[in-house]
Write a structure and sequence with these properties.
Layout: H1 13-22, H2 34-46, E1 53-57, H3 60-71, E2 76-80, H4 85-88, H5 93-98, E3 102-105, H6 115-127, E4 134-141, H7 152-164, E5 169-172, H8 176-183, E6 198-202, E7 212-216, H9 222-231, H10 240-250, H11 254-275, E8 279-280, E9 288-294, H12 295-303, E10 309-310, E11 323-329, H13 336-347
Parallel strand pairs: 2-3, 2-4, 4-5, 5-6
Antiparallel strand pairs: 1-7, 6-7, 8-9, 9-11, 10-11
Helix pairs in contact: 1-10, 2-10, 3-9, 6-7, 8-11, 11-13, 12-13
């Protein structure tokens, strides 16, 4: 009954086999291996973007901060949701790698940036002139940190505002595969066709051992990203082990299959929780759930070994009837029998 994070799930067996297969003989280092050239071709095909610049790093934070540093100036304001991973969970890395850019929160109902609020804040920032941070990149996350999903139309609405002011748009796609599975949209429709300039195509939360793909749809920034990746100590020497994982991810659309499994597990869990009386803080649209249920049921579940993340960190003592919120996340390997056991205890 493990629902703490999809980040804690295992790597898929085919990924581990790909790593073993890559672990023979010699290969050029630093991304010069043939596997990376083949992967670059495959990513371009997946996103219908034949000119895209494609790079690999080992962590989501590295992908986010290196891409944003490439798109932003040190004096930029980076517009994002208040709960964005770059603002809440990266220990100041965006500010550090950009040389001081300011993360500027925008009203984000259901975790999704409100286009009108974005326009107002861009105008407000610009009004300060030289005294304040200058309008810079817009960063969105799909799947969002609240478990909701941007459609292609919603992404396009955000990008349209950014383009009014000639600002680039970055997409944190740590769970991008889950967004594609949830919307049944083509990757291109959720990204560059909607106006996104760059994204991270995540794999670590979806069955890979540890690799994220950074894609710039306009290659003009490619060389700068390469320099920043090397200067930031995120260019792997034995790069073939990153390429091998991502190749396995793409083969036979494994990335989409695993995300679909995780989303289906999330939907099954959400349905059962609703039937057991839980309420949702946000609509559960992919594999991540924010729900409330009584303290006494939390205590039963934790005693039985269920692992998830209460919003306040610990359940603690108090009225057994108090409704306490928690986050639960399903991954590709989530087992139906574990979910059924969780729901059985919840409903007691």
């Amino acid at each position: 009954m493990f629902f703490a994070s999809d980040n804690a799930g295992p790597a898929h067996p085919s990924v581990m086999q790909a790593l073993a297969d890559a672990n023979t003989g010699y290969a050029l280092p630093y991304g010069s291996e043939q596997a990376m050239e083949d992967l670059r071709r495959d990513i371009r095909a997946l996103f219908e973007a034949p000119q895209a610049a494609v790079y690999l790093v080992a962590t989501g934070t590295a992908a986010n901060v290196l891409a944003l540093a490439t798109l932003a100036d040190p004096w930029s304001a980076i517009f994002c949701a208040p709960m964005a991973h770059i603002r809440e969970d990266e220990c100041g890395a965006p500010e550090f790698f950009t040389g001081g850019a300011q993360l500027t929160p925008i009203a984000s109902p259901e975790g999704k940036i409100d286009p009108q609020a974005l326009r107002q804040e861009i105008v407000r920032k610009a009004s300060f002139g030289v005294r304040g941070p200058q309008p810079g990149p817009v960063s969105i996350t799909n799947v969002t940190e609240t478990g909701t999903v941007y459609t292609a139309q919603e992404t396009a609405a955000i990008c349209a505002v950014a383009k009014e002011f000639d600002l680039p748009v970055y997409l944190d796609g740590a769970r991008f595969a889950n967004a594609v599975a949830a919307t049944q949209s083509a990757p291109a429709d959720l990204t560059w066709k909607a106006g996104v300039d760059a994204l991270s195509f995540g794999g670590t939360k979806n069955g890979l051992l540890g690799v994220e793909c950074v894609v710039f749809f306009d290659p003009a920034k490619a060389h700068e990203f390469e320099l920043r990746r090397k200067r930031g100590a995120h260019l792997f020497s034995k790069h073939r082990y990153l390429s091998a994982q991502m190749q396995a991810y793409l083969k036979g659309d494994l990335w989409l299959e695993l995300a679909s499994r995780a989303n289906a597990a999330g939907a099954y869990l959400a349905k059962g929780m609703q039937e057991a009386g839980a309420t949702f803080a946000y609509a559960p649209e992919a594999n991540m759930i924010f729900a409330k249920w009584p303290r006494e049921a939390h205590l039963r579940l934790q005693k039985a070994g269920a692992v998830y993340l209460p919003s306040d960190g610990e359940i603690g003592a108090g009225d057994p009837a108090d409704m306490l919120e928690a986050r639960l996340v399903c991954d590709w390997s989530s087992r139906r029998e574990d979910t059924d056991r969780f729901l059985e205890i919840l409903a007691q």
